[in-house]
Write a structure and sequence with these properties.
191 residues, 10 helices, binds shikimate-3-phosphate
């Protein structure tokens, strides 16, 4: 185990490492690698929601509506927060309900991943792929990303730590994430 991994593990001290932030910031990609390096289980809450619903996310939005998706997401977050020692990638709107924030903070360190809007659009696969994402559908996904980012500023402010991944490749970003946890996670105490 490298020094940074050992230091991150000890600073997290069993709490969940919860990645929050907009679509395309790398929550799932980095979360999976970070979990492997930390020797932890990885949970992607979008995948858990899909498993519960037996539907893919665009189908949940189409057939059941966004509120139904948010209700399922909230249930999944509660079940995730009942466990410890996980790395969790959340959906980009997971902090939209205040009860979700409380649940995740209870035994987790929340790290906000961010990136510039043009980078986010590229990472979600460009305008055409973005249009297939329920919340980015429409004629101008880049404008939609900017609007949603502005609307969500307050939600994302609930995170404990922040990492801008705009100019990093995946392995560099994982290293930066672990180093950030190693330096700062021990200092995060609730109440
Ligand atoms: C959403 C982000 C998506 C997914 C759903 C809603 C959002 O997850 O949860 O489409 O509200 O930003 P990713 O951030 O993993 O793409």
């Amino acid at each position: 185990m490298t020094g940074v991994v050992a230091a991150a593990r000890s600073a997290l001290a069993g709490r969940n490492l919860v990645l929050v932030g907009f679509m395309g910031t790398g929550k799932s990609t980095l979360g999976r690698v970070a979990a492997r390096r930390l020797g932890r289980r990885f949970i992607d809450t979008d995948a858990e929601v899909e498993a519960r619903a037996g539907l893919f996310i665009p189908e949940i939005f189409d057939r059941l509506g966004e509120e139904a998706f948010r209700a399922l997401e909230a249930e999944v977050l509660v079940s995730v927060a009942e466990r410890t020692g996980l790395v969790v990638a959340t959906g980009g709107g997971a902090l939209g309900r205040s009860e979700n924030v409380a649940v995740l903070r209870a035994n987790g360190v929340l790290v906000l991943l961010s990136a510039r809007p043009d980078v986010l659009l590229r990472r979600v696969g460009g305008a055409e792929a973005a249009a297939r994402r329920p919340l980015l559908a429409g004629p101008d996904p880049l404008a939609r990303i900017r609007t949603l980012l502005t609307e969500r500023q307050e939600l994302y402010a609930h995170a404990d730590l922040r990492l801008d991944t705009s100019d990093m490749g995946a392995s560099e970003a994982v290293q930066a994430l672990l180093a950030l946890c190693a330096r700062k996670a021990a200092g995060i105490r609730r109440g």
